[in-house]
Amino acid sequence: MKRMLSAMVVACACAFAPLQAPAVELPRVFGDGMVLQREQPIPVWGRSPAGARVTVTFDGNVATTRADRNGDWRVDLPASVAGGPRVLRIDDGTGSRVLEDVYVGDVWLASGQSNMEWPIAQSADADAEIAAATDPLIRHFKIPKSWAGEPQWQLAGGEWVSASPDVAGNFSAVAHFMARELRKTTGVPIGIIDSTWGGSRIEPWMDAETLGLDADASAESLRAAREADERALAETRRRLSAWPAGVADDSGWEAPGFDASDWVSIPVPGIWESSGWIGMDGVAWYRATFTLDAAEADAGVLLGVGRIDDSDVTYVNGHRVGETTLQYNLPREYAVPASALHAGENVIAVRVVDTGGGGGIHGSADELFVQPAGGERRAIDGAWTFRVADAQVSAGDDGKNQFPTLLYNAMIHPLQPAGIRGVIWYQGESNAFSVEEALRYRTLFPALINQWRGQWDAPQLPFLWVQLASFGTGVDVLADGVAQVSPWSVLRESQSAALSLPATAQVVTIDIGDVADIHPRNKQDVGKRLALAARRIAYDESLAWNGPAFSGAGFIDGEARVAFDVGSGALAVRDGGDAIHGFVLAGDDKVFHAAEARIVDGRVVVRSDAVPSPVAVRYAWSDNPADADLVNDAGLPASPFRSDDW
User: Fold this and answer.
1) Is the pTM of this model over 0.85?
2) Residue-number span of the structural domain to which 596 is assigned
């Protein structure tokens, strides 16, 4: 009995003992190795027990405050000059945080969709660029893809990482190359906060008030989306239950005689999510067949298996014929030797590894083919079968980058009011599927800029963006090879319209796009051009930083005479020739025709025999204006434009 009473006393004592108070909670963007913005007051904020006295110490300065009844607190430290390493200490009397290796320099917020997210490891000269990333005072903070129905206080994750060859492959290539250029000219530490999500529209990066959304309607939309997610995931799990649970041993699945009787049919091309495998990542196999005669088999073939998200190993009759790693948008074309072929039916087997997002064989139907040596391409248009070897199924993030406010709530709002030097933005492809959407961007984009500036209480916050590069979308409308309707051109025009806002700049990239890939690999020049724009807008340097910008056109004697802004440099042709490519003219019929153009007395004179009385001129007005070659004497390209508003 005494032992029982003693135990009860101990238990009661433990029950009433004070719990250890948690250490002060800071936003995740505050951490070891962080970069703080120089020459601006430094906001520091967090959460502590209600009423706690909070002391923040940094660079010889001390600030104190008390947490409000909700536990929230904020102090603003005096501005500090560039340098480091330094220590930031926060103490609320119940616990303390000490952040080390803190530097003061310039912090840039990099946001947008996949071309900003695109890593160095998948860019041009990747191995050399990774090896050269040895500057520890370029530091990246990557925010994980995350979303929320309401503005969040805390980020879902992230940490500060100094550049080194061990880690730089995962850094945003555009942001890193810009930072590298700025390090050369400023000499100060550069911090990059990478808040990006591939495929995202602009609306998810904006708040409900700016978009004019009703809070109840937004909540209902999100609830419906979650319910749809659950139904879709349940269907995926049901489909997977047709096979034994767990990871399958897929060795030998490439063999032509392998028993694939329990495989299921699947449409190809098309990511597997579009066929009902929602929320699934992992490893899956595809099989199909093609037929050859004896002469074709003896000569070998070229095999096209489309674009594969993300990686593949491809076999024909059990022979490995090709492999591509982490190139989700690259068409696979593999040479198949005669030794792997025979007359009659041949078996294709493709092992696909998907690391996240969409998965499977996608692209266009004409990218799936067999081409005998010296012959025509023949479509692989027969039945494809499908089997999962290793699956992870989760609600994940599918489609969340399309819903208004969700990314702002989780990936931008928690950063405010962290000190930043400016914003770099590369987004718009996902809003350019139609002219109507591209025109709406003209309202949305400046609204986003003003929203972020207002929330950072920085009306002159430098905001720099990358105009859409050239790309063969296939959605522009052509007549005799000339674009009459071009959604990407209208989107570019909408981007240019935002230059009416102060402290803005646009980087033109129509000359460094890729007709076959929406993700051009040359991110070095994009970063360099952003750095030039930053040096002008954010650092107030006098230098050549942008190409020719249209200022007006007159129509006289059957010609268009086009003028450009003073200060954007002398006009030139990229290859040094006399003829300029990319100009078109139209008369009152509003039908555009290719035109000849040349530089005369600092202007461009444009004419076409097909348009004797022109009333409108356009330049680089197509989704893929790869031939447009007007530049300035610094080699920077002219921005696309039109004189009409049709």
Assistant:
1) no
2) 550-642
**Strand-pair category, 53-58 with 83-91:** antiparallel
Residues 190 and 41 in one domain: yes
Average pLDDT of the segment spanning 603-609 = 97
DSSP strands (E only) in 209-330: 264-265, 280-292, 301-309, 311-316, 319-324
Residue-wise DSSP of 103-138: EEEEEEEEEESHHHH-BGGGSTTHHHHHHH---TTE
Alpha-carbon span 440 to 443, nearest angstrom? 6
Confidence grade of residue 226 (pLDDT, cut at 50, 70, 90) = confident
Query: Does the structure show a pLDDT above 60 at 124?
Result: yes
Does any domain span residue 15? no
Instruction: Give me the number of domains the chain comprises.
Output: 3
Instruction: Give the Cα separation of 45 and 39 in Å (integer).
Output: 19
What are 262-300's pLDDT values in tens digits? 999 999 999 998 899 988 999 999 999 999 999 999 999
Look at residue 11 in the predicted model and tell me its pLDDT. Answer: 40
The three-state secondary structure class of 198 is coil
CB-based contacts of 143, cutoff 8 Å, min separation 6: 155, 156, 157, 158, 193, 194, 195, 411
3-state helix, strand, coil in the chain (%, to 5): 25, 30, 40
Residues contacting residue 39 through CB under 8 Å, at least 6 positions apart: 79, 80, 81, 82
Q: Which of 608, 578, 585 is CA-nearest to residue 596?
A: 608
The answer to whether residues 528 and 562 belong to one domain is no
Half-sphere exposure of 527 (CA within 13 A, CB side): 28
Three-state SS annotation for 324-355: ECCCCCCEEEEEECHHHCCCEEEEEEEEEEEC
* CA–CA dist 371, 383 (Å, integer): 18
Whether pLDDT at 122 is above 70: yes
